Amino acid sequence: MKFLEMLRAAQERNGSMLCVGLDPEPRRFPAALRGDATRIGEFCARIVDATADLVIAYKPQIAYFAAHRAEDQLERLIAHIRKVAPHVPVILDAKRGDIGATAEQYAIEAFERYGADAVTLSPFMGFDSVEPYLKHEGKGAFLLCRTSNPGGDDLQNQRLASIEGSPLLYEHVARLAQGPWNLNGQLGLVVGATYPNEIERVRAIAPTLPLLIPGVGAQGGDAVATVRAGWRPDAPIVVNSSRAILYASSGDDYAQAARREAEKTRALLASARP
Amino acid sequence: MKFLEMLRAAQERNGSMLCVGLDPEPRRFPAALRGDATRIGEFCARIVDATADLVIAYKPQIAYFAAHRAEDQLERLIAHIRKVAPHVPVILDAKRGDIGATAEQYAIEAFERYGADAVTLSPFMGFDSVEPYLKHEGKGAFLLCRTSNPGGDDLQNQRLASIEGSPLLYEHVARLAQGPWNLNGQLGLVVGATYPNEIERVRAIAPTLPLLIPGVGAQGGDAVATVRAGWRPDAPIVVNSSRAILYASSGDDYAQAARREAEKTRALLASARP
Q: Where is the active site (chains A, B) (predicted)?
């Protein structure tokens, strides 16, 4: 199934806009696993088991595996998601961005090695750094547009004199993704939940693209304002929460606590739907 | 030793501005190794053995290892470089760019796991996506500024209305790297060899930063014009060639052929020094 269809189906089936971000930090694991980098995959798998009927997607962040030499655990984790939640798409958060020949290698890594359904990408190097991913039929790619971190302003909020209408850089990225770059309807955008008015702005420019919205939960984004700004019946929003769910409890009940937190966030998001 | 000192020392010792990019593609290997992803590290190690006295740096591109599940081979390759060429710095070409907490993980991957001396980064997410790397004392970080690929124009060449003097986006990045972002003198810039006049422009803005300049060789950049535009006595330029050297011969003499090509390129670069 194509990524976008898969996303719509998961949204429908689980009644959810919530994406659980898998950013495992061994030092924050419950006592029985704490500090044990060989059990990263196991920790995440228990979170998946507890939330598989509550989410629109899972988003493993590859850095948290790579720092611990745990690529094999990431492979097995994604295979586990396939088994227990075959209807839930996996977005590999990697934010790659490189020239065409290298992008081809990264696309193989994301889609063939890990079997992800979509990937996050940086648009900084332009269209030929994005195109190789689009050659993987049915796969999705979310371009960084307006990110939720403090430094997101540094470049993304600069106004471009050289483009008609003098858009901000992130608005220009949104236009490119909605228009000329989106060859086969595979693109989406990453827009931080910390800036609901900018989600609204991106939505006006890119009405049909799926939006991946990190920053709810530990990062402090307003879940309700996020949904009001971004929700469209036909273009899913994927609202990510990582730490607030993964580390909802530091005890042995961490998976149940994650489920409760995920249920709460899912309901909060649903209540905000216009 | 700090990265910048290491770079200067290697430049001096090997009389070189040439960086050999390690972008191994098994399908392009000589017949005895062709298509064998378990011998990626071995192929690269033979290139290193043949060129260790000719280069200012090595630049392994992580995507070419990750696509083949060959992170362990990359670890061993960098350890091999340490052994046969302890004076030559290793720049891990990864072009990472993510929020602070994730950047910390990527920095651990690059500097602790792989033991690289420097890394390439994307500036798209702003200063707090760069800062965690700078906390690793003595390590270097090259920010993408003006890249050598066709799509490099798409964002990097946009003129910014909101900044004094209306710089292009890549000029703005160069200013940030030369100035406020360069807390401890660890930053450098990536500027493609395909645009010598833009190297000149970056040099005017960032006179003291090391420049990593890909695009010579297979990508067609003009080596002589590159050196004329970028060379400074105190701020090394690191001129990268990958494919032209790695695949100089498709026969069993590939390492010797790589050496000849590296010698030729080193001499060409040296001859262009003002």
A: 95 (proton donor)
Question: Is residue B95 flagged as an active site residue?
Answer: yes
Retrieve residue B106's tokens: 């990527």
| Domain at B3-271, CATH homologous superfamily | Aldolase class I (3.20.20.70)
The pLDDT of B48-67, averaged and rounded, is 98
- Helix extents (H) in chain A: 3-14, 40-51, 63-66, 71-84, 100-107, 131-134, 152-156, 169-178, 196-205, 223-230, 243-246, 254-271
SS3 A95: strand
Judged against a pLDDT cut of 70, whether residue B219 lies above it is answered with: no
**Range B85-99 average pLDDT:** 97
Share of chain A above pLDDT 70, in %: 99
Parse chain B into domains and list their residue ranges. 3-271
pLDDT above 70 (res B57): yes
Residues 90-149 of chain B with CB under 8 A from chain A are 95-103, 105-106, 108-109, 112-113, 122-130, 144, 147-149
Mutation target among B102, B119, B128 for the A interface, most CBs of A within 10 A: B102
Q: Using a CB-CB distance cutoff of 8 angstroms, which residues of chain B are in contact with residue A23?
A: 101-102
Measured distance CA(B135)–CA(B27) in Å, rounded: 39
Flag whether the ipTM exceeds 0.90: yes
- Work out the minimum CA distance from B12 to partner chain A, whole angstroms: 30
> pLDDT tier at B59 (50, 70, 90 boundaries)?
very high
Number of CB atoms found within 10 A of residue A124's CB: 30
